[in-house]
């Protein structure tokens, strides 16, 4: 059984009187800055001067400084800029300004696990990885709860690194839901494998292929859109709440029988083999190397693929359908 920490395992007092620098003010950065400030901590925000977040964070009442200054002022540095941007910002603006005993906190293990950032031995390196987007991190905190998270320690200079990680998790509401003790390796690899095979890649491909086949058979694209995309959300919500069994209790008898007998013929053993291969590419570092090279070239493949998706018939029909079926403020 995994070790799961809750609120009573974490003590905010370790962060009292410490300066926490949130580097970046995007999806996670803004949510963490607000949550930690509301938890009574001293938060400053490190940004590029003139960037568009600078004004926003200032307007929202934070002390905003440039990243090198934030790194100098802080006891705790929370890295909330995009993973592919982190190595250069670290090299030029953070690394040269570190001092012994600081705590560096990441929200995803990518740059540490794949060796793109190599911190000196005299700092703590911890991971507090929320399992949800920044919007959920903030909204659930405001409701008195939080998203679940993974916590891990890569480097324990202070011998208190886990306590720091748990306190940061608590200040964001994560220990209200539960923070699982993990490692940078486990968090990074499962995150990448999960998003490639299921959450982003797998689901998208299943939707697209099913839509293509149904429209090939001559069904109206509007009907196909409802069937393979729109309704998916409702099914996923049921699974999310009650597991596979909870979902099966609610769908019809025919859907239960059809789903259980035909599902494994569609998503068959080839898929399992393909997931294993994708996982191996992550574990070996081949995927990370490819992505870093792609990013350094300006993301030509990513841009091309995004454009192809935008032009896919399910996206064209989807844009029209969503105008029809969503009412602002209702859904
Ligand atoms: P984001 O893209 O929303 O953050 C952008 C922020 O980084 C902005 O404030 C921007 O000003 C700053 N930034 C961008 N380029 C910069 C540069 N060259 N120099 C300085 N600052 C720059 O990022 P995010 O999605 O919040 O991700 C932050 C971290 O959180 C990442 O490690 C990510 O893996 C992790 N994470 C994200 C999510 C998510 O749902 N978004 C979930 C879990 C973990
Ligand atoms: Mg991910």
Classified by CATH, the class of the largest domain is Alpha Beta
Measured between the Cα atoms of the first and last residue, the distance is 38 Å
CATH superfamily of the largest domain: NAD(P)-binding Rossmann-like Domain
Largest sheet: 9 strands, mixed
Structural class: alpha/beta
Sequence of strands across the biggest β-sheet: 1-9-8-7-6-5-2-3-4
Radius of gyration: 22 Å
The low-pLDDT segments are none
Strand content: 5-15%
Description:
This protein is α/β, with parallel strands linked by helices. The protein is built from 16 helices and 9 strands. Nicotinamide-adenine-dinucleotide is lined by residues 24-29, 47-48, 51, 53, 80-83, 85, 89, 107-108, 129-130, 133-134.
Q: Any key phrases for this structure?
A:
Rossmann fold, 13% strand, binds nicotinamide-adenine-dinucleotide, single chain, binds magnesium ion, 16 helices, 9-stranded mixed sheet, 331 residues, N-(1-d-carboxylethyl)-l-norvaline Dehydrogenase, domain 2, alpha/beta
């Amino acid at each position: 059984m995994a070790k799961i920490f809750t609120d009573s395992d974490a003590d905010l007092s370790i962060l009292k009187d410490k300066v926490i620098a949130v580097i970046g003010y995007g999806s996670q950065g803004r949510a963490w800055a607000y949550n930690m400030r509301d938890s009574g901590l001293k938060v400053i925000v490190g940004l590029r001067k003139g960037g568009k977040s600078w004004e926003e964070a200032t307007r929202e009442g934070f002390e905003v400084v440039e990243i090198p200054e934030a790194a100098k002022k802080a006891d705790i540095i929370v890295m909330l800029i995009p993973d592919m941007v982190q190595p250069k910002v670290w090299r030029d603006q953070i690394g040269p300004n570190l001092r012994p005993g600081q705590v560096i906190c990441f929200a995803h293990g990518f740059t540490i696990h794949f060796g793109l950032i190599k911190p000196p031995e005299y700092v703590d390196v911890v991971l507090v990885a929320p399992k949800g987007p920044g919007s959920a991190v903030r909204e659930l905190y405001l409701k008195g709860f939080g998203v679940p998270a993974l916590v891990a320690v890569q480097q324990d200079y202070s011998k208190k690194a886990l306590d720091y990680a748990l306190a940061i998790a608590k200040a964001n509401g994560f220990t209200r839901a539960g923070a699982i003790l993990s490692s940078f390796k486990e968090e990074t690899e499962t995150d990448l494998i999960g998003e490639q095979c299921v959450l982003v890649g797998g689901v998208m491909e299943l939707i697209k292929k099913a839509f293509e086949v149904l429209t090939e058979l001559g069904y109206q694209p509007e009907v196909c859109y409802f069937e393979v995309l729109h309704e998916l959300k409702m099914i996923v919500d049921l699974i999310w709440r009650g597991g596979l069994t909870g979902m099966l209790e609610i769908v019809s008898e025919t859907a239960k029988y059809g789903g259980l007998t035909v599902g494994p013929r569609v998503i068959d053993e080839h898929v399992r083999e393909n997931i294993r291969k994708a996982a191996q590419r992550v574990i070996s570092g081949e995927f990370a190397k490819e992505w870093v090279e792609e990013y350094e070239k300006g993301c030509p493949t990513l841009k091309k693929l995004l454009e192809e998706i935008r032009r896919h018939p399910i996206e064209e029909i989807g844009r029209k359908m969503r105008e029809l079926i969503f009412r602002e403020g209702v859904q």
